[in-house]
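Reproducibility note. Readers wishing to regenerate the assembly model reported in the main text can use the exact inputs given here. Chain order matters: entities are listed in the order in which they were concatenated for prediction.
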Amino acid sequence: MVAAGVMSACLVLTPVSDASAQQYWNKKVKCEQSDPEGRVIPTRYGNGDLGWNHFFGKHNIKKCRVVDAALAGKVDKKSGGRLEYYRVARNQAKLVNIVVIVQYARRTGDGEYDAGKGNKIGVVTTYCKGMSKCPNWINE
Amino acid sequence: MSTSGKETVEQQAYLTRFLLDYTALPLAEGVFLRGVLPTRNAVRIVTGGADAVLAHELVAYEIPLSDEDDEAVTAPLVLGWTRALLAGPLPRTDATVMGMPLVLVDTAALEPASPVPADRALRVLRTLAWPFVESPPSPALCGFFFTGPDSMRLYLAVEKAGGLIAADVRTTGALTALLAALPSLVEEEERWATDTSDPHCARLIDLTNW
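Running the prediction on these inputs yields the following structure tokens for the assembly.
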């Protein structure tokens, strides 16, 4: 069951050009959520390097609400433009800790991507703590 | 400063900061970054040998700040385009700036070169040691130019100057004090001079003997 999820997820990964990643990232917003301090945080489609197209396959997160639920809580860690939001997802007795990494700045920390004037990069990645792929039930 | 002026300053400061490593790391065999000259809508990437300071030893490549879709260009692209240009013969040009050949780069027609292993390593290290910050320090360093073995020109955004101040400094002497005082010194209007030979600044300030 997990293997099937992995295979279908691989199909959506966008190749990242080594030469000029910036040219190939899709800035279109897939999801958007405000945090309690009024930051409006987009999740952009991005590419295999960051954003929705990165974590959809790589970390098996396929619903906006998984990301948005974490963003709706307080910021758990802040360093410059880099913000972290945590949320615990629960399915009966099973728990996973969801981590959302946000760049609330125009450019990514490595200077590779630019969201444009007045815009924020938004969600760089989302993952489940301690595992590379989240369990399928978090998307249910 | 206008919104577009602030935007330009921010972008030039980001590009300059990103490219600093290439003053020591070659862009091509034996070719280094010898300056970043800021203009209204572009940066001029000055390249030359390790110690080159004379105009005939240098080439300036003018890269627009926006692409054909009006998207701001990023520093990795500027680096990739510069490397791609250096891999080929020097394009024919009749234009010059400060005595150097000036190549106007058509970025739409140029495929950026792939990063070399050192670029990738720097991407990792720089992001952790020196991540991008949205507000550059004040005054923002928008460019620089090596003028001698122990001297350089710094292009600094000073709001009340209505443009960039070019500050000539030495890299020897009481540098800690000079660098600490620099943000104040560049604001002293009585020190401002006009340099018509340098189109990249509104005013010039000579701090080589400070």
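We highlight two features of this model. Residues 3-129 of chain B form one domain. Chain B is about 25% helix and 25% strand.
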